[in-house]
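Hi C.,

You asked whether I'd gotten around to modeling the 361-residue construct. I have! Everything is below, sequence then structure, no commentary in between.
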Amino acid sequence: MTATTPAAGHRPGRRSLGSLLAGNALILALLVIIVVFSVLRPSTFPTLGNFGSILQANAAIAFVALGLMIPLILGRFDLSVAAVAAFSGMTVARLMSDGLVTAWPVALLLILAACAIIGLINGLLVAYVRLHSLVVTLGVQSVLYGGVLFYSKGMVIYDGLTPGFLALGQSRPLEIPLPFIFVLVTAVVLWFVLYYRPLGRRLYAIGGSEDAARLTGIKVNPMIVGSFVASALLAGIGGFLQVAQVGSASPGNGGEFLLPAIAACFLGETSIRRGFYNVWGTVVAVYLVAVGTTGLFMIGVAAWVQPVFNGLVLVGAITAARFTGQRVGRSARRAAAGSAPPTTPTTPAAPAGSARAHSPV
């Protein structure tokens, strides 16, 4: 048996430490931001009340970001997620305000059914009609915002929301905001499905190479449709919880979710599971952006700084994701070349988590 030795100049310890730091860069960045603003505002920022408010206020964005992440894994983009959240929130408010529904579980089921139909329309147009996902979902977004304005008549709705419904967004068992608990439970389920079930491996395989996935027998079109349905369902839950949290529904609610959600998905791709859209990277990124904007607000920056900050984070996230994907791809090719046997090559099966071969469409 032949023993292998490290190549000259190879430092296993340093590489392991570097990989560990790079893989958890978002978590480290979040901790650094918390420390910085805690030093700048020691009496107001590092408090349980402030952290609880951040966790609670951004749970809806986390749901929207997780919904957006699923089509991105397959190389598709869903720009309608924020509009779906707005539609969901306004619909549940009107149903309760008009007295049509008083039990929140019934309202949730109706909302999920409507959101599933929206996602189904998106998915069918993208998968079977072969329309560009950006164009389709941008059009659906516009239609939904128009529908919200028509349905609400441009008014803020706050009457008729039941105490049980409001408790979903405002309760804090053991001082932990209930919406954040919902985010954690959903994230754990998605993480398990995406990383440990065949369904998740198929999703990443389609994102890596759609043609290769078809050759291996994966039914690509139904998976694309399913990803848009899942995206709409998660966005709908986010809008549902947003209204429960603030106690009202405004025609403009949800529109501000899109930019942070996109930034979170691309930021998440750079950490934890580098080069791949992943659950925990997305969730951490949502709260990293939220902590940053909250800290800026507390130190008294001008109002224009927050949108500039969000825009810079988005551009930086996309840039970092691009370079991270390229580095992961080069590392995978070098590893494949180094481990290739000297015999006649055969075509290997596509790995479950292969890097994406194309941009979202």
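If it helps when you're writing up: The radius of gyration is 22 Å.

Thanks,
B.
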